[in-house]
Amino acid sequence: MKPQFGNGVTLVFDDLGPRAGAPVILIHGHPFNRTMWAPQTAALTAAGYRVITPDLRGYGDSPVLPGKVLLADLADDLAALLAGLGIEQVVVGGVSMGGQIAMEMRLRHPGLVRALVLSDTSPAPETEAGAKLRRETAERLVAEGMRPYAEEVIDKMLAPYNVTGMPGAAARVTAMMCATDPEGAAAAQRGRAERPDYRPVLAGAAEPCLVLVGADDVFTPVAEAEALHALLPHSVLAVIEGAGHLPGVEQPEAFNRVLLEFLAGL
């Protein structure tokens, strides 16, 4: 399905499950696409939820707009998508960059957010060194393509023991990364380098929040998830054993069990 927005961006997305079900939107990370949520979509729709999984602009089947794409642009795209679907309130979930987009939605469209699900993500603004690295990575992606980057980060996206122990998951994650358009990934990296500090808005969040993290995540370690949990007034924390940065891919049954328990309590 492809809704056309007033800003000219057409997002490709899946809208699955009963239309009368409580809606949940799941936002993929960089450099992935909506198919990363397949295990969660299957579990949630089976439990009666309506699940929307978009390809962010520049990723998957959605169009690529080279240059710089701010997290605010991505959040506004999703708010427009939900408005086009007639959804007034939704559980907003995301992993890594997708979690930061979820926080941006809470900042820019607070009335839309019924609850937050934040997996392996950080609310802090980018450091000066981190911003420099993101901009350099953006140029490298355009110059070299995605495969060198994918090969470099696969054992950080997944726990190293899962790269060898779960070859199917590793192949799936690598294929998603390599299929991403370098210009789209670079645009998001440039925008992400400029992300704001989400801690003030989260500290005042009244809605329920679920914080998840892989026990062996090196990008956003457990300590960062604990700090995020402490910041959010109405949050629960789940550490997923046997997983790195993508516990929804590495340990889908454990991830889904926690997610369904949280949603049932809303």
Automatic annotation (TrEMBL):
Residues 23-250 form the AB hydrolase-1 domain. The keyword Plastid does not apply. Coiled coil: none annotated. It comes from the Bacteria. One of its GO terms (molecular function) is hydrolase activity. Keywords: Hydrolase. The keyword Lipoprotein does not apply. Pfam families: Abhydrolase_1. InterPro entries: AB_hydrolase_1, AB_hydrolase_fold, Carboxylesterase_BioH, Epox_hydrolase-like. This is Alpha/beta hydrolase. It comes from Streptomyces erythrochromogenes.
